[in-house]
Amino acid sequence: MPVGGGTAPTYQWFVNTLQVCTGSTFTYAPQTNDAVYAIMTSNAHCAIGSPATSNTITMTVTGSSSVAQSGDWNVPATWANNTVPTSSDNVVIPLGFAVTINQANAFCYNLVVEGTLSSTIGSQTLTVGADLTLENTITITGANAVALKGSTTGTGTINVIDGNLIYSGLLPQTISHIASNAVKSLTTDNKAGVTLPAILTVSNLLTINAGAKLTNPDLASLTVNNVMIMSDVTSGTGTFVDNGLITTTPGSVANVQQYLTGGRNWYISSPVTNATTGSISTASLVQSYNESTSLWVPESSTLHVLKGYVASISTTGVITFAGAALNTGTMNSGLTRNGLTIKTGYNLVGNPYPSYLNWDLASAASTNLETTIWYRTKNAANPTYVFDTYNASGNIGTSNNGTEITSMIPLIQAFWVRVASGFTSGTLAVTNAMRSHEGVVSNRLKARSFEDLTQQVLRLQVSNGTNSDEAIVLFNVNAADGLDKYDSEKMTNGNAYVPEIFTLARTEPVAINGLNSVKTTPELSLGFNTGEVNIFTIKTIEASNFDADTRIVLKDKQLNIEKELKVGDD
After folding, report:
1. How far is CA 566 from the centre of its chain?
2. Residues 247 and 284 in one domain
3. What is the Cα–Cα distance from 159 to 184, expressed in whole angstroms?
4. Considering 432, 451, 470, which residue would you say is the last residue of a domain?
């Protein structure tokens, strides 16, 4: 393993080139020929060779094999070696033999079923730690379940019309070999993602555990009764992406959880139809924003699709949005620019889906809206509220909360948009094609696209030692030097103890200033606001893609002082 990781190195683990985990250690059930390696990123000052990639380890799996005769799984006499299989044993049930699981939970590594395997009494779970090969039928009924961690192949089927099916692998899985395309209950606990088959009916309950991902692919048809998407403090909320057709049984219930800490406001939206403010059980107050009057309006009824709300959460815990179905499909929301205050045109909207929403795509499909979104959030290092800004044209965002924001809007997240100048109305338009899951990496908002790698980016930060703020200047050949879609207005924090920094696009203070080239704008004004007497530092925290001889100089024209700002220097 590489050394010199500093005080808090970060790790990314890969299996067959797919990132599957972060953290200093990684545990999983391997398959023979799996290629495993890690990438470590040091936080040490002036680290050399960071990030560092480990050597690749090719896995070879060995273990004992258990061949069944007939009888109950947990009876030693059922097995040719007179030993009940464990989670590390490969199991074969030969043609002509029948095994039942009716006394206790059963475990194996690889499983080959040529005979018959059933579980019909009690509430046992068969856990297959690796791959399942089916040449006959597994029948699971009642409260019993089969949990699969690998792939499924063969000509046989899993009969779970009256049983429970669990997918809990560490690598992506695809559901297949389901008898009659039906299952009583389906649970996914796979954070790498599970893909549904072309046709599936879940007659009782579909559960997506915290942090897990489920996809209904193109042209697939899912019929579902009740749905539960879980959330916790460690893994966040599970996500569901619907690219096919989903039919919800009348009278069913869709529940989506969200873990929220208490003692603060959260900007939220509902991912289900017909949810009410009562879903936010830990909130002392829920409000929406009226653009025309510039007033906050208390809410006590239905949470509308695509609308954003602010919930004052008093107690830490999980809230549950309860509705008739998961939001899906094409949705539109009419927005206004009628206000008479400085917030004219600003509308508080929300991600309507139980998945991430790509703002780059939504911005392109919407009408008369600026290309910018704004988040009201808290800084990760202290309890101060800040604004973060993302511009779709420049594909860049600020990181005042401690994490650079990108086009990927999390589920249950409310955000600000603005109807463009010159219009009194606009339309926010979203579709299923704009949906996705987050990556495995811990940074849920940071995922820059490749298209911004050639534009030049200057990121400045002002700090009073406790709170900070950013201004971004980008140079893009498609941007104009005036106010255009590459510019994002500055949303002020309204807090005397949060310093603010900005530049000007014409006369408009902007958080992100898109310009055509350094040659046409070699110098621009830098604005600063504060409500306190303090000592402030200004530094460059990013300077990307500039020529090697480019210098960034801060000029105090009143005192006639110049200071070169190198990346990291105050």
Report:
1. 34
2. no
3. 10
4. 451
